[in-house]
Amino acid sequence: MSCSPLLCSFRIPAIPISKKKPIFTHQNNRLLTVSLFSHSHSNSHPQHHTQSMEVNDTITNNALGFDFLTKKPYTPPSWATHLNPIPPNYFSLAHLPTPIHKWNLPNLPKNTQVWLKRDDLSGMQLSGNKVRKLEFLMADAVAQGADCIITIGGIQSNHCRATAVAARYLNLDCYLILRTSKAVVDQDPGLTGNLLVERLVGAHVELISKEEYGKIGSVALTNHLKEKLLNEGRKPYVIPVGGSNSLGTWGYIKAIAEIEHQLQTGTENIKFDDIVVACGSGGTIAGLSLGSLLSSLKAKVHAFSVCDDPNYFYDYVQGLLDGLEAGVDSRNIVDIINAKGLGYAINTAEELNFVKEIAAATGVILDPVYSGKAVYGLTKDMAENPKKWEGRKILFIHTGGLLGLYDKVQQIDSLVGNWNRMDVHESVPP
Ligand SMILES: Cc1ncc(COP(=O)(O)O)c(C=O)c1O
C-alpha cells in the first residue's frame, strides 16, 4: 500500500473485543494498522467480524497518545538551527497540537478576524503555556540527575502548579516558594485554585511575604532553598519565575513551528497579521516573537503585560534572546502594552464582568490574571484605535490559568447567572 504520509486511507480488519488489545503494525515508522476482534454473545468462541473502518488520518504513536511522558530527541525547525544552545531533548508533557479556531469576539473593528490558539487546552493539570516551557526544563532537570525541583511564584502561580504536576509525573519532588501577603504568611494557605492541585500532588509549599520577596529577590530565595536541600543530600534543580529562561523559551519557538505546520497542512487558508498574548514573566513572548520573526509566519507579536512595565519586559526578553545568541533587538520584534490595571492579580469589577461577558458570548473562559486582562486590553485598544486593527487577522494565544478564577469567586459571585428553586407541583407524577 502506498500512502501520502499526511493523508492515508486504510482498512482496519476485524479484532476480538474480548482481548481488548489493539494490535499495531508500524509501516514506514508512521502508519499503524489496527486489528479488532469481537465476541459473539451466543457463542463462547471468539468470532471474527469483517467490519472495516475507513480512517483518513496518519496514525502515529503521537496521535495515539503513547508518547505522553516520554523523553524525545529535539530537532529545531530549520529556521532556528542557528540559535545556541539547542536543547537535545524534551519531555512530551502537553497535549499537542492545541486547536486553533475562529473566535467571534463582540465589537470588533471592520473586517477584523480573531482566531484563538487554545493553549488553555494543553492538558488539564498542566493547562496553559507553562507546560511548553516545562517540556524542555524538565528534560534538562532529569538529564542533570535532579531528584527534586525548586520553583517560585505568586500564591496562585499557574507555573508553580504546572511544575508540581510535571515533577510528580516524572517522580521528582517539588518545592514551591509562594509569595503571599504579610497578613496571612503564617497561616495555612488553604486549597483554593492552584493550591489544591499543588497540595494534592504532594508539593512542599514554603510561604514568603511580598515584602521579604521584594527585599531578597526570587533568585536569592531559590538559591537559599537549594543550599539547604544540597546540605540534606538532595539534588535540586531550580526553575526561575514563570519558567522564563532561555531554555524555557524553546517552548514557544516550538509552538511557532506547530502553528506554522497547522497553517500549512490545515484546510483554512489563513495568514495571521498579528499574534496577541498576555505577558507575565516574558518567556512566552520571547519564544513567540523570535519564532514569528524567523519562521514563515512573520506576524507582529503584541504582548499585554499584567505586571511590571513594558521597559522591564523589553530588557528581560532581551536577556532571553541573547541567551540564545539570537542577535535581535527585543524592541524591534515585540510590541509590549501595559495591561496591569490595578496591579498583578488584582481585578476591577469591569475586568471580571468582561471575563463573564466573553464566557457568556463565546463559551471561552478567560483567566482573570493573564488572558482576561490581555483580551480586555486588546478590545480597549481596538475601541480607541480601530484603524490599527481594522481588517487584520489576529491569532490570540489563550495561555490557560483557569484555576486562578477560583480565587475570584467572591468578586464574581454577583455577576453570574440566576438560579431557581425548581417548582415541582403535585401535578408532576412521582
Ligand atoms: C495563565 C498564564 N498566562 C500567561 C502567562 C504569562 O506567560 P509568561 O510568564 O511566559 O510571560 C502566565 C505566567 O506568567 C500564566 O500563568
**What composes the largest sheet?**
6 strands, mixed
Question: What is the third-level CATH name, the topology of the largest domain?
Answer: Rossmann fold
Question: What is the averaged pLDDT score?
Answer: 87
Total domain count: 3
Please report the number of helical segments: 14
Distance between the termini: 61 Å
Helix share of residues?
25-40%
- What is the CATH C-level name of the largest domain? Alpha Beta
Q: Count of DSSP E strands?
A: 18
Radius of gyration: 24 Å
Range of strand content: 15-25%
Bound molecules: pyridoxal-5'-phosphate
Based on secondary structure, the structural category is alpha/beta
Shape-level CATH architecture of the largest domain: 3-Layer(aba) Sandwich
* Largest beta sheet: strand ordering: 9-10-18-15-16-17
Low-pLDDT stretches: 1-58
Give the overall shape. Answer: globular
Draw up the topology in text.
Elements: E1 9-11, E2 23-27, E3 31-35, E4 38-39, E5 46-47, E6 54-56, H1 61-64, E7 71-73, E8 89-91, E9 100-102, E10 113-118, H2 130-143, E11 148-154, H3 158-169, E12 173-180, H4 194-200, E13 204-209, H5 210-216, H6 218-231, E14 236-238, H7 246-265, E15 274-279, H8 283-294, E16 300-305, H9 310-322, H10 330-333, E17 334-338, H11 349-362, H12 371-384, H13 386-389, E18 393-398, H14 409-412
Parallel strand pairs: 10-18, 11-12, 11-14, 12-13, 15-16, 15-18, 16-17
Antiparallel strand pairs: 1-6, 2-3, 4-5, 7-8, 9-10
Helix pairs in contact: 2-3, 2-7, 3-4, 7-8, 8-9
